[in-house]
Design goal:
Elements lengths: L14 H16 L4 E5 L5 H9 L3 E12 L2 E11 H7 L1
Antiparallel strand pairs: 1-3, 2-3
Helix pairs in contact: 1-2
Length: about 90
């Protein structure tokens, strides 16, 4: 699993969207995978927007997926398929 983390000064500038697109691009160009998945915390609305802007589709919610702040938290599941990625390259 890989992820991104942005310093506060870079948030809200499209950097997260660019990073998600770059990661998907890397996986699809360098491997034969058909699908790239992304997970985030339910309260990380900015990351959810970035994933959607990067072409990912929200598929559902993974209950109790993350341990944070002393408790299990739900996490939205996103994905992008190779055919979808090929439409925006």
């Amino acid at each position: 699993m890989i992820g991104i983390s942005l310093l506060a000064t870079y948030r809200g500038q499209g950097v997260g969207t660019q990073a998600q697109r770059a990661l998907a691009d890397l996986f699809f160009r360098q491997t034969t995978v058909n699908r790239v998945e992304a997970h985030t915390d339910i309260e990380n609305v900015a990351e959810q927007r970035a994933l959607e802007k990067a072409g990912f589709t929200r598929e559902g919610l993974i209950r109790g997926a993350h341990w944070r702040d002393g408790r299990h938290r739900d996490g939205p599941l996103y994905s992008i398929l190779r055919a979808e990625w090929e439409e925006w390259i």
